[in-house]
Each structure stands twice: as C-alpha cells, then as structure tokens.
Amino acid sequence: MVATNENGTKSYNNNTIIDLLLPLFFAGHNTPAIAAIWALLHISQNPRIFQMAKEEQESIIRQRPSTQKGLTFQEIKQMKYLMKFINEVLRRNTVAPTNFHYTVPKGWTVQIWGVAVHMDSRIYSNPQEFDPSRWDNYTPKPGEFIPFGLGSRFCPGSELTKLEITILLHHFILNYKMELVNQNCNVTHLPSPKPVDNCLCRIIRGLSKSYKRTIHFEI
C-alpha cells in the first residue's frame, strides 16, 4: 500500500491506507475477543448449559485414539451443541455493527444496530432469554441472523472467529471454571458492548478425568 506507481506517486494516500487498516485491527482483534468474553460469561453463568456442553466435549474426547494429542477439525465438526451455543451468544450479544447497501448523506455518522434484529420477538420468541436450544432444527431466513453482516460485505473472518471461540470453549469447558469479581458489572456499548471491567474474574482449574487420560496441551 505504500509502494509508488510508475509515475513516482503513491498508489494510496494516507487517509485511504488508514481506512483500509483500521477495520482489520478492529475486526481481527477487538470483536473476536469481545465475543469470546460473552461466550465465557454465558457458559459460566448457566450451569445447565455448561453441563450439556461439557458432556458433549467429554463424549468427543472419549472417542479419540490414545495416540492423538490435539484437537482436530473433524472433532470440531461434531460439536453440534457448542455451535448452537455460539450462535446464541452471537444473537444475544451482537458485538459489531452491520452494513448494508444504503446511501448515507455526506457528513453523517451511521451505525446499524444488529441487536434490533436479534432481539425482535417477531423473529425470536423470548429474545431476552439465553437459550441455545432455539437453534434446534432452525435455519434463519436472510436478514434474521446478522452478527457478521449480509451480502457482498459479509465479514470474511466469520468462520475463523467461530473456530477461535470453539477452540477456546473446548479447553475452558474441560479444564476450568470462572468466578466473576464484579457480579453486577455494567456494560459499555461503544464501540462494542462489553463489561466495563473487561470480565475481571478468577479462573479455577479443574481437569476433566476423561480429558486427562487422552490429551496433552499447553495454555
């Protein structure tokens, strides 16, 4: 981007370079990290959901050959309940604005709020309730589930983000528990909704027996 063309001038001016780079820093680091925070909060605050997710993970671990030492993509594809959980996290706590084709008058600042869609009772029954089972046999219509946008501007990192959260939750569920330091922490909403204390917590280590027998890893 800083290279010059044949005439000796820059291909991009500084403002264009900034416009291209800032979204990569924000979308590549900030939003996945905040989505992971909400995933850990929900899995820790819902014992029944935690147990169901843990049973699924332990079932996958038990099927491993004794020589396997790491998580495989085939195992990730078996995590049906965890995928529903992650979808519910992204519905309940949308962490990024969504962009569609719309002509905005010059000088306006616009942020389209995906929460308005994900919390619409006409689309999701009891939208305030965190319920991964709502994704059982349910495929949203276009425009009903938009944590990563829609159409030609759909987030190119959507699958990577979900993969990162899946791997994090896999290790967390099987090895740790979390206790919040501030139980009633407020939420700030800009640029993305997150606890004001960034989820300050105590991490308690407690290895799953089935996990200890079959895997070696470093965190």
Automatic annotation (TrEMBL):
Compartments in which it is found: Membrane
Keyword NADP: no
Names of the cofactor(s): heme
Entry GO terms, CC: endoplasmic reticulum; membrane
Membrane topology: Single-pass membrane protein
Alphabetized UniProt keyword annotations: Heme, Iron, Membrane, Metal-binding, Monooxygenase, Oxidoreductase, Transmembrane, Transmembrane helix
Predominant place of localization: membrane
Listed Gene3D superfamilies: Cytochrome P450
A single GO molecular function term of this UniProt record: ent-kaurenoic acid monooxygenase activity
InterPro entries referenced in this protein's UniProt entry, alphabetically: Cyt_P450, Cyt_P450_CS, Cyt_P450_E_grp-I, Cyt_P450_sf
UniProt: heme binding residues: 155
GO BP terms: brassinosteroid biosynthetic process; brassinosteroid homeostasis; sterol metabolic process
Chain ranges passing through the membrane: 20-41
Domain of life: Eukaryota
Keyword set includes Iron: yes
PANTHER family: CYTOCHROME P450 26, CYTOCHROME P450 88D6
Family under the similarity heading: Belongs to the cytochrome P450 family.
Protein name: Beta-amyrin 11-oxidase-like
Species this protein is from: Cucumis melo (Muskmelon)
Lineage: Eukaryota, Viridiplantae, Streptophyta, Embryophyta, Tracheophyta
